[in-house]
Amino acid sequence: MIITISGALGSGKSTVAKLVAQKLNLKHYSTGDFMREIAIKRDLTLLELSKLAEKDPSVDKELDERQIRLGKKEDNFIIDARLGWHFIPHSVKVFLDVTDEEAARRIFAERRADEKYNTTLKKTLENIKRRKESETKRYRQYYGVNYFDLKNYDLVVDTTKLTAVQAAEKIGRFVRNILAK
């Protein structure tokens, strides 16, 4: 079984995916980690890399090919990836939603070393909106898809008022119900 978890920035994709992977004893991958690796290689911030990707398709191509390979060569894993549902169509597709304000609060509280530009909560909210616009524009342009279209998913979980554990439990129940059929 392959589970793809997509979602809004700050919705808890990586945290929830790790928890679900542990619960279901699956390997975990994250395109956020893949993206950070590319940013480090190119000596850029994530926001700078997202902006560069609007003009340089090699960034997305590298991420896409990695996901496609995983979907073809491996089984029994979970991947948090905005477009995982698109590149691994035979997966169980989950979308995590969250309000922009809650996402900003979560991201700002994390204070990731590779996101030093999130200096205030207000700035973090602005950066979320810019990154969301950048990604939405690229994905429409490159693939003709909108990852915010909830019809693309088997399960949608709003994490705004949920803990990561609660969200993981919902996904775990959903997956167990699929396996029981």
What does this structure look like?
The chain is of the alpha/beta class and 181 residues long. The chain has one domain (2-163): Rossmann fold (3-Layer(aba) Sandwich). Helix content is 57%, strand content 13%. The protein is built from eight helices and five strands. The protein has helices spanning 13-24, 31-41, 46-55, 58-73, 84-87, 100-110, 121-143, 164-180, and strands at residues 2-7, 27-30, 77-80, 92-97, 155-158.
Rg, rounded, reads: 16 Å
> Sheet with the most strands?
5 strands, parallel
Q: What portion of residues belong to β-strands? A: 5-15%
Total number of distinct structural domains: 1
Unreliable sequence segments: none
**Can you give the helix content as a percent range?**
55-70%
CATH structural fold name: Rossmann fold
The appropriate CATH architecture is 3-Layer(aba) Sandwich
Strand-helix topology:
Layout: E1 2-7, H1 13-24, E2 27-30, H2 31-41, H3 46-55, H4 58-73, E3 77-80, H5 84-87, E4 92-97, H6 100-110, H7 121-143, E5 155-158, H8 164-180
Parallel strand pairs: 1-3, 1-4, 2-3, 4-5
Helix pairs in contact: 1-8, 3-7, 6-7
